[in-house]
Design a protein that fits this description.
Structural class: mainly alpha
Protein name: Proteinase-activated receptor 4
Distance between the termini: 116 Å
Number of strands: 5
Largest sheet: 3 strands, mixed
GO cellular component, one term: plasma membrane
Strand order of the largest sheet: 2-1-5
InterPro entries: GPCR_Rhodpsn, GPCR_Rhodpsn_7TM, Prot_act_rcpt_4, Protea_act_rcpt
Shape: elongated
Keywords: Blood coagulation, Cell membrane, Disulfide bond, G-protein coupled receptor, Glycoprotein, Hemostasis, Membrane, Receptor, Signal, Transducer, Transmembrane, Transmembrane helix
CATH architecture: Up-down Bundle
Radius of gyration: 30 Å
CATH superfamily: Rhodopsin 7-helix transmembrane proteins
CATH topology: Rhopdopsin 7-helix transmembrane proteins
Family: Belongs to the G-protein coupled receptor 1 family.
């Protein structure tokens, strides 16, 4: 009897041990599954990332309340549209008048072709600003449809980077005119300049083509707003957009900035050798480089920081700073006419004659650029 009791006790202990082992295995499996199912940090698209929700076959976006409050803040609905409005009021008449005078009164030189294309790019950039102004004044609401949202986004970025590329072409052309005035005459022709400008326009269009191939406007769930480009849904291939914007900034900003800095430095070196009479032209040459860095560097740096950082609550604030810097970058289109055109006394005189018809001498053609820059101390053109 004692032996039977001992055997029963051992059997009970064995069964209890098996139960403990089974419970431990279940706990281990559950712990492992919980670790595997932990959501990974996903990369963010260029805009603020939002989650999708489908209601009655309509795709809506969901964003945190903090982010929504930032998009509806005074910075977004007041400061940014006011900045765009000021850029529009300054840039539209300045570039339109400059293009009109260049097209009707300027001598057809290689530099004139570059300047006309620059004025056109700046004019197209400011011409899309009324849509962005109304969008922000309406509290981040886009009432113009998906097609116009894509077109406005592509034209905005395309013409902005096209201006950067054209500024680089102008700087290189001036380097050739100053450092190699005689040997460069053979290929500094209006025809070759026109071909270069055509290549720049095609390059800018190709670089911004992906913006026209993806949906840009989404309604915001429960807000009665349709956002354009500011909030985009997360995608499985978000890594593509990171590499796309790295390539865009590298090809359309960093590389042109490097070429512009090298060519401007070479021009400054030649001008400073000429003494004090070229001091004014040297200052304007330096101003071109400084304005490009001041207006465009902040937005491009913030764009890379925004996209390369892990998703966090800081992204809304970082993107808000990016939108402000992007609005400030449009003022470069307002500064270009005064740096390149209106600084010239000859150009201002032609503008007065063209606008006020105050002189009978309207048959004299305007030379916006001499064959060698040092011949004029009052103008960079």
């Amino acid at each position: 009897m004692g032996t039977l009791g001992s055997r029963q006790l051992l059997l009970c202990c064995a069964l209890w041990g098996l139960c403990l082992a089974s419970d431990y295995d279940d706990y281990s499996q559950n712990s492992t599954s919980e670790q595997v199912s932990t959501p990974e940090v996903t990369p963010c698209p260029r805009a603020i990332p939002g989650d999708q929700a489908t209601v009655n076959n309509v795709t809506y976006l969901l964003i945190p309340e903090v982010t929504r409050a930032q998009l509806g803040s005074a910075v977004t609905v007041r400061l940014i549209p006011c900045l765009y409005s000021l850029a529009f009021l300054l840039g539209l008449p300045a570039n339109a008048l400059a293009l009109w005078v260049l097209a009707t009164r300027a001598e057809r030189l290689a530099s004139t072709v570059f300047l006309m294309n620059l004025a056109t790019a700046d004019l197209l950039l400011v011409s899309v600003l009324p849509f962005k102004i109304s969008y922000y004044f309406l509290g981040n609401h886009w009432p113009f449809g998906e097609g116009l949202c894509r077109l406005t986004t592509a034209l905005f970025y395309g013409n902005m980077y096209c201006s950067v590329l054209l500024l680089t072409c102008i700087s290189v052309d001036r380097y050739l005119a100053v450092a190699h005035p005689f040997s460069s005459r053979a290929f500094r022709t209006p025809g070759l300049a026109a071909g270069t400008c055509a290549a720049v326009w095609l390059c800018a269009a190709a670089l911004t083509l992906p913006l026209t191939l993806q949906q840009q406007s989404y309604p915001l769930l429960g807000a009665g707003l349709t956002l354009c480009h500011d909030v985009l849904p997360r995608h499985e291939d978000d890594g593509f957009y990171f590499y796309y914007f790295v390539a865009l900034i590298s090809c359309a900003f960093l590389l042109p900035l490097l070429l512009l800095a090298l060519s401007s430095g070479a021009v400054l070196r030649v001008l400073l050798r000429g003494g004090g009479r070229y001091c004014h032209a040297a200052k304007l040459t330096a101003l071109v480089l400084v304005s490009l860095v001041v207006f465009y560097a902040p937005s491009n740096v913030l764009l890379l920081l925004h996209y390369s950082s892990p998703c966090s609550r800081l992204h809304g604030r970082l993107y808000l700073s990016y939108m402000v810097s992007l609005a400030l970058s449009t003022f470069n289109s307002c500064a270009d006419p005064f740096i390149y055109y209106y600084v010239s006394e000859d150009f201002r005189e032609k503008v007065r004659r063209r606008v006020f018809k105050g002189s009978k001498k309207t048959t004299t053609s305007l030379k916006t650029s001499k064959e060698t820059l040092p011949r004029s101390k009052h103008s960079l053109v």
